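Field reference: "sequence" (input) and "structure" (output). Example, Coiled-coil domain-containing protein 93:
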Amino acid sequence: MAAASVFQRVRTGSKIGAQYDQEGNLIKVETREDEEQSVKLAEILELLLAAGYFRARIKGLSPFDKVVGGMTWCITTCNFDIDVDLLFQENSTIGQKIALTEKIVSVLPKMKCPHRLEPHQIQGLDFIHIFPVVQWLVKKAIETREEMGDYVRSYSISQFQKTHAFPEDEEFELRKERAISTEVYAPQRRYKRQVDAGELLDEESRVHSTLLEFGRYSISSFTGPENFVLSSCPAGSEPRIFWMPFLQLRIKALMTGMAAMATEEGKLSASTVGQIVGLQSEEIKQIATEYAEKAERSVEDRPERFGPAQQHRRQLVSLNKRITHKTKDKAKQHDHSWEGSVSLCCFEVLCLLLSFRFLEKLRALVAMNETLKHQEQTFRSHCREEMTRLQQNIEELKLEYGEGGDEKKEMNMLIDQQYTADREKLQKIRLLMARRNREIAILQRKIDEVPSRAELTQYQKRFIELYSQVSATHKETKQFFTLYNTLDDKKVYLEKEVNLLNSIHDHFQQAMASSGSKEQFLRQMEQIVEGIKQSRIKMEKKRQENKMRRDQLNDEYLELLDKQRLYFKTVKDFKEECRKNEMLLSKLRAKGAS
C-alpha cells in the first residue's frame, strides 16, 4: 500500500495564499500604486462609513471585500425588489467574485442607476469608475432609510403600546376616569319657573325660558342698523326681526315668572333679579325716548327741498313711535299676536333703512344712465352727418367722371403706354445688368485664380515641405539601392572565393601526386593570386574615384547651401523693402487725399 502524502491536496479553485522564501520571509511582489486610485478608494470608504457600513473600517479586509461588500449592503438597504441573490462572502474564490460582480452589474440598470459599470472594472479595482456608482448607491440608501424611518418608528411604538405603558399614561387614564365620573362641569339649574306663572304658548319662548333657568340666554343673532336683531329660530320656520329694547323687555317678562333654586348658595334671589331687570327697563325706556326726540329734531332741522328723504324720515319716526307703543302693550298684555305685528313693523323699518342707504347710489346710477344716453344720441347724429358728407363726395366724383369721360380715357391710355414702355426699358436694363454681373463674376474668378502674396508664401512653404519629404524618401531609396549593390557585389566575391577554395581543395591531392603537376599547381596559384591583386587594384582605384566624386559633390553642396542662405537673406530684405514701400505709398495717398 502506498504511503499517504504528507502534503494536503490543494482544493480546486482555492485562493493561493501568501508565498514565503527559504528563510521564511514573506515574498513581497512589486506592485504599481496609482495615486488617483488610492484617493478614490479613500473617498469610497468614507462614503460607506457615512452611510453606516462600518465593516469598511476593518483593516484585515481587502479593498475588494470592502467595496463589493459596501455595494451589496447599499443595494440590500435600498429595499429594491430584484430577482438576484446577492450573497457576499469575504475571501471568496475567483469564480465567486466574478459571479457576484456580474450580479451587481445586472442589478444596477434595474435600479435605474445613471452610471454604467462593467464586471472587469470591479474585479480590477478601477475605483475611478466605481466611485460614482457607490456615491449614487449611498445616496439612494440614505433616502430609503429616511423614508422608512418614520414608518418603522411608528410601527415599533404601536407594537410597544400593545403590551406596555408608561407611568404617565397610567396616571392620565386614572385622572381621566375621575374627571368623567364627577359632575363638576355638568350644567346647574339656577332658576325655576313658578307654577302660577302660566304656561308658555310658543316653542321659542319655552326655549328661552329653559336657557334662563340654567343661567344662559344665548341668541344667535345678527345685529342690524338702529339696534335691530335678526334672531335665530327653530328648524322649519323663518327667522324673525326684533328690536333690542323689545328683547330686553321680553327677558324681563320671562324672569318675573321665575324663582331662584332653594339649594343654590351664593346666587341672586328673584327680587334682586327683578330689580336688575327693572333698572334695565328704565334705561331702555329712557334710550327709546331720547331716540324719538332726536329723530323729531332731525326731521324739523331738515329743509323742505329734500322731499323724498323728508317723507322717508317721517315714516321712520312714526314707525318708531308705533314700535314703542306696541312694546308697552306687550309688556302689559303678553299677547302672542301682537309680537307678530311688531316683528312685521320692525321688518318694514329695516327695509326702509336699507333702501335709504342705496338711494344716493341709485341717483348716481340714474344720472350716469342719462349721460350715456345723451352721448349715444350725439354720436349717432355725428355718424349721420359724416355719412351724408361722404355720400355727397361720392356723387360729386361720379358727376366729374361722367363729364370728362373721354379725357380720362385718353389719359388712362397714355398712362398705360408709358407704363408698358417703362416696363420694357426696365426689363432691358435688368438683362444688361445680368450680363454685366456675369462679366464681373468671370473677371472675379480670373482674379481669384492669380494667387496673392500670402498664398504664394503658403504655396512656397508647402512645396518646400514636399521637396523635403521627397528628398528624404529619395535619399533613403538611394541608400537602399547602394546597400543592395554593395551586398550583391560582396555576394559575388564571396561566391568566387568559395569556388576558388573548392577548386583548390579538389585538385590539391591530385597535384601533389607528382612533381610536374605540383609545379603546374603552383603556377596556377600564382596566376590566381596575381588576378586577385589586379582586381584589388581596380577596386581600390574605383574607390578612390568614388571618393573624389564624393568630395566634389560635397563641395558643390556647400556652395549651394551658401547660395540658399544668400537667397533667403535676399528674400527677407526684399520683403522688408516691400513693406517700407507700402508704408510710403499709404502715406503718399493719405497726403494726396488731404
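The longest strand covers residues 228-231.
The chain has a mean pLDDT of 75.
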